[in-house]
């Protein structure tokens, strides 16, 4: 592991390795995106969760929209989003998200949220209305939603699935052994249940999950999680390096080398995932449309060249 100790015996992580260094983003792209988000009063996980890919994505004219406010009811040890008492629902937000998608010309839109355990449906209706608004304003755009676990509510999940997303994403985040420290208000089995029920409700909708490494997990545990996800017929998988947002968050236990990420990608493919994105800077929405393209290619091969069921985004 990339860890060393000071003379006093205090444990501290070593300096970031070279593969985690990124060029500074171009300010013009950041300014344009910031202006649009301010104008439409929208939040993004890019900013609120401190995503390291923000500069790249914003300069490419893409963003992952975060609905239901910017205050979360949970206190995960890895997440930069603030915890507290959320504000009242913004009923105009779904339309504004759709307007942003249209103005950006997105062919694939990704929408996530904070956890809203204060709401009876966990925010499911807001997700559904956002999907519906994007469908109405941007009929050629594919839609991916990254949802919380809704405390395992089948009714809440059904509301989202009825709106017909192209991809239903729910992250397991880490291995079960680390849940108490990393995701104290979540349960691994409950996350698997959500993914399983989503597939049962709408078999044509792709399911997706993701996890971080570098939190102290073992390779065998990561493989166990992959197998568990394939056990509920999960299609897409993302694996990325955990990066500590601040000294108040969980420490990095290891900077996982690129070769290990490549090994995870190969193992995931062997287990049958349609698409595996694995790398130090990979996040849930990283190059999200690539998974749909991979799925369409697989389907075309299986059907002997007959077109698949999805409109596949080409330019994201």
TrEMBL record:
NCBIfam families: lipA (TIGR00510), PRK05481.1 (NF004019), PRK12928.1 (NF009544). One of its GO terms (molecular function) is 4 iron, 4 sulfur cluster binding. [4Fe-4S] cluster 1 binds at residues 46, 51, 57, 285. Keywords: 4Fe-4S, Cytoplasm, Iron, Iron-sulfur, Metal-binding, S-adenosyl-L-methionine, Transferase. Binds 2 [4Fe-4S] clusters per subunit. One cluster is coordinated with 3 cysteines and an exchangeable S-adenosyl-L-methionine. It comes from the Bacteria. [4Fe-4S] cluster 2 binds at residues 72, 76, 79. It catalyses: [[Fe-S] cluster scaffold protein carrying a second [4Fe-4S](2+) cluster] + N(6)-octanoyl-L-lysyl-[protein] + 2 oxidized [2Fe-2S]-[ferredoxin] + 2 S-adenosyl-L-methionine + 4 H(+) = [[Fe-S] cluster scaffold protein] + N(6)-[(R)-dihydrolipoyl]-L-lysyl-[protein] + 4 Fe(3+) + 2 hydrogen sulfide + 2 5'-deoxyadenosine + 2 L-methionine + 2 reduced [2Fe-2S]-[ferredoxin]. Signal peptide: none annotated. GO terms for cellular component: cytoplasm. Its cofactor is [4Fe-4S] cluster. Pathway: Protein modification; protein lipoylation via endogenous pathway; protein N(6)-(lipoyl)lysine from octanoyl-[acyl-carrier-protein]: step 2/2. GO terms for biological process: protein lipoylation. This is Lipoyl synthase. The keyword Iron applies. It comes from Limnochorda pilosa. HAMAP family: Lipoyl_synth (MF_00206). Residues 58-274 form the Radical SAM core domain.
């Amino acid at each position: 592991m990339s860890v060393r100790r000071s003379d006093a015996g205090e444990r501290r992580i070593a300096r970031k390795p070279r593969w985690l260094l990124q060029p500074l983003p171009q300010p013009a792209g950041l300014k344009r995106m910031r202006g649009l988000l301010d104008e439409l009063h929208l939040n993004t996980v890019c900013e609120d969760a401190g995503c390291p890919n923000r500069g790249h994505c914003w300069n490419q004219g893409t963003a992952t929209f975060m609905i239901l406010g910017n205050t979360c009811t949970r206190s995960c040890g890895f997440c930069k989003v603030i915890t507290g008492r959320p504000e009242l629902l913004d009923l105009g937000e779904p339309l504004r998200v759709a307007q942003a998608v249209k103005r950006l010309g997105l062919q694939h839109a990704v929408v996530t949220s904070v956890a809203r355990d204060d709401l009876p449906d966990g925010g499911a209706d807001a997700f559904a209305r956002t999907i519906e608004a994007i469908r109405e304003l941007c009929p050629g755009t594919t839609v991916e939603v990254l949802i919380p676990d809704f405390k395992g509510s089948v009714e809440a999940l059904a509301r989202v699935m009825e709106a017909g997303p192209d991809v239903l994403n729910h992250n397991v985040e880490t291995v079960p052994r680390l849940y108490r420290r990393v995701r104290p208000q979540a349960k691994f089995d409950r996350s698997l249940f959500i993914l399983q029920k989503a597939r049962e409700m709408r078999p044509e909708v792709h399911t997706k999950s993701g996890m971080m490494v570098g939190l102290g997990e073992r390779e065998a545990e990561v493989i166990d999680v992959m197998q568990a996800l394939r056990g509920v017929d999960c299609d897409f998988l993302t694996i990325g390096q955990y990066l500590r947002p601040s000294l108040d968050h969980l420490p990095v236990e290891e900077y996982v080398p690129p070769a290990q990420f490549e090994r995870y990608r190969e193992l995931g493919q062997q287990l049958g995932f349609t698409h595996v994105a694995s790398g130090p800077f990979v996040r849930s929405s990283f190059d999200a449309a690539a998974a749909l393209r991979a799925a369409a290619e697989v389907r075309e091969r299986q059907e002997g060249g007959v077109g698949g069921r999805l409109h596949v985004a080409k330019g994201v």
